[in-house]
Design brief:
The structure is a homodimer. By secondary structure, the first copy, chain A, is of the alpha/beta class. Chain A has 19 helices and 15 strands. Chain A is 40% helix and 17% strand. In chain A, the strands form four sheets. Chain A has a seven-stranded mixed β-sheet, with helices on both faces. In chain A, strands 8-7-6-9 form a four-stranded parallel β-sheet, with helices on both faces. In chain A, helix 3 (70-76) packs antiparallel against helix 5 (115-127), helix 6 (141-153) runs parallel beside helix 8 and helix 11 (234-240) crosses helix 13 (269-275). Chain A starts with 6 loop residues before the first strand and ends in a 6-residue tail after the last helix. Chains A and B meet through strand 1, helix 6, helix 8, helix 17 and helix 19 of A and strand 1, helix 6, helix 8, helix 17 and helix 19 of B.
């Protein structure tokens, strides 16, 4: 019998002490990254200019469990374990027999799940003597998280922020500066890539692909600097699995187990974090679990992209990854889920979709905001537009249960709050959002 | 021996089931409110046009414990218990032998402690057939919380928002609208008070005193409407005691007990919520606890005000309360702690200061922002400017411990996050804040 409770807390001692690596459980392992110059599979030494060896080894490992270092755990303790909440208000509003649970990562000081990997990445860099990190940010969630993590470890932090966001989101910029980061609008005059683009168009609004190119150029130029990123790569997804491992313990506390597991997907780290610890239940143990990845129909990588090798950035400087992609030149329309506007997806997640383990859906943003508002009124939390793709999907599953009478347990990831996205809500109410 | 842990969580079952009423523990009970017309102590019937009887009875009760109704507990479970965190990063940054703990209310969906009483007030109103609430808000914390609570109980909500805030804080307005509230800039043409002020000055920026007058005028005009407020009165402070009751259980879990208890004070509900459950330890049991209330030096009610009967609003329509006051006509300068810009203070808190149980300090805003930034870099959370007054005070206590070597346990209330206040941080970094 599922528990009568609503809020499933864990004790500090129940924070996972190891990250879960999904690679050994995959029906087909992801293909290796390809060097953009040699077109050969890259080795650890190819990545050394960009990443510390601790993270490179995590990128290629096939070990199933990776111990979380003590200093990382110490910092997780500031906001973890995060809550698992039974969405009783939403269930009632929908009149569904389904049980809806959400794992809420918005309690992190940076407001989203991104802190889980930012802290780990800052740790491994500092441990190897790096004193400065360069990275990019679109809407600002990742930039905020890495700025915070750098402040914890005393690292300098340079964030290339997509120009359009930099101008429209002064709050995000102020957050990063509060944590001590130097934030530059991208394209910037500080890199060759930025200079080239500015020469062609001094008013370029930038894109995530351009910002990545700038950060990737910045890092190898300086002895003290490495590059870091907030999604797509194996080691990033690995760090996020604390979400799913905690959710698993909390579902046990709820005397329940998910029939459906839902999350939004931009680069894939949020959804992987929640879903991957449950993948062996389906793949190895044959449990009937539906995994659903939700993306915006304005950037439909998993639902309409091609599965092939492609670059991670605009300037074609990153290794080639085998993944679902809309093409590295794809510029998504300016929707309000900045965190989901990426042309590619994590290779491991792409492979699991290709192999039919995970299914994908896409929603237009007005449908997404409609459910975000319904969720806020029923449950309280004002969700991030990104996370609201998962809410929309969970609601549609719960409404299907109302039709069939099926009492499914639906678990979705609420990756962050929307308190830095209120202008988008304002525009939604004013009828200014289009699909 | 104090615990080695950092994050002290409680289980849902440990949410307090009764609120704690400090009145029976006070050395001198607060004097009764006085009717503005008759100048006689007011009775329950005088308050009936404004409040439901359930709340009026709580306003006057001398019972020590008031049972929390089931539906209120059900909604508390969405975000409570809130965390108690040992500020290990801050301790290290300060090099102090003190143990610093903070109770964090920013995990509530509205971002502050205000939800604790908003939910209770919406419940009692709905239980007595009220279908619409009118209230005021300054910076927007209270308006957000009551808007959310009304959405939970299906009540209409009208918020009179101080004009200056309405114009400068579109995010706060969007939050309230997301929860379905109707938000009017105050002074508004919708009330006689508002019309009168607009006739004198069509560009009036408004004040909290004016907004209170408008909401107090709105409520009795309609059969379906009552008034509600977010601080000052006994029943509001009562509902906040879940904070201190939880903190008490969490300090036990930490194998520690506070020597100093600190909170910021605007109307007094946040600090009362944390401190009141510990008052009997000092007053009845003679424990050596220092209670410190922190306020802005721009609105120094407790440190420089007069202890006397005064009105709660500008238009002199509310009952007279015996309290520390700067005068009901006092207009505080436009500092960035909107929630602390009130001319008076709760009668019970004022009395405890008058009787020497609680001491008070005042800080200028640049000192406050300086410590807010230091806290964010050491602990992660970007605090509300209001809450940062408590941080400043806790830091000064901890620095004093560094001098004396005293290993005090310092507990402070972190009443909310500052994610809706990032423009103030921006101005602080730009050097635009003055004291």
């Amino acid at each position: 019998m599922p528990s009568e409770s609503t809020h499933f807390t864990l004790d500090e001692s129940q924070i996972p002490t190891a990250w879960f690596n999904v690679i050994p459980s995959m029906p087909t392992p992801p293909s290796p990254p390809i060097h953009p110059g040699t077109k050969q599979p890259i080795g650890p030494h190819d990545l050394a200019p960009l990443f510390p060896m601790g993270l490179i080894l995590q990128e290629v490992t096939t070990d199933e469990w990776i111990e979380i270092p003590g200093p990382v755990l110490d910092l997780y303790r500031r906001y973890r374990p995060t809550p698992l909440i039974r969405a009783r208000g939403l269930e009632k509003a929908l009149g569904t027999p389904a049980r809806i649970y959400y794992k809420y990562e918005g309690v992190s000081p940076a407001g989203s799940h991104k802190a889980n990997t930012a802290i780990a990445q800052a740790y491994y860099n500092q441990a190897e003597g790096v004193s400065r990190l360069a990275s990019e940010t679109g809407a600002g969630q990742w930039g905020s998280a890495i700025a915070m993590a750098c402040s914890f470890f005393g690292l300098e932090c340079r964030v290339y922020m997509v120009r359009a966001s930099y101008d429209q989101r002064p709050g995000r910029r102020a957050m990063m500066q509060t944590w001590g980061a130097a934030v530059w609008p991208s394209p910037s005059p500080d890199t060759a890539v930025g200079q080239k683009i500015l020469a062609e168009d001094p008013n370029s609004p930038g894109s995530l692909g351009i910002a990545i190119s700038e950060a990737v150029e910045d890092a190898p130029k300086r002895e003290d600097t490495k590059y870091c990123l907030g999604s797509v790569l194996n080691h990033v997804l690995l760090h996020q699995t604390v979400i799913g491992l905690e959710a698993r313990a909390q579902m046990e506390k709820a005397d329940d187990f998910p029939d459906v597991i839902i999350g939004c997907v931009g680069g894939g780290s949020n959804y992987a974090g929640l879903a991957y610890p449950f993948i062996p239940d389906k793949v190895r143990d044959g449990k009937q679990i539906r995994f659903i990845a939700a993306e915006p129909s304005a950037c439909p990588t998993l639902t309409e992209g091609t599965f092939e090798y492609d670059f991670g950035d605009t300037a074609q400087t990153t290794p080639l990854l085998e993944m679902f992609t809309l093409g590295h030149g794809f510029i998504p329309p300016p929707i309000h889920s900045g965190g989901l506007r990426y042309h590619g997806d994590a290779p491991s997640l792409s492979r699991l979709v290709k192999d039919g383990v995970i299914e994908a859906v896409a929603y237009p943003q007005t449908k997404v905001f409609e459910s975000a508002v319904q969720f806020a009124r029923a449950e309280g939390i004002i969700p991030a537009p990104e996370s609201s793709h998962a809410i929309r999907t969970a609601m549609d599953e719960a409404l299907a249960c109302r039709e069939t009478g099926r009492e499914s347990a639906i678990l979705f990831g609420l990756s962050g709050h929307g308190l830095l996205d209120l202008s988008a809500y304002d525009r939604y109410f004013a009828g200014d959002l289009i699909d």
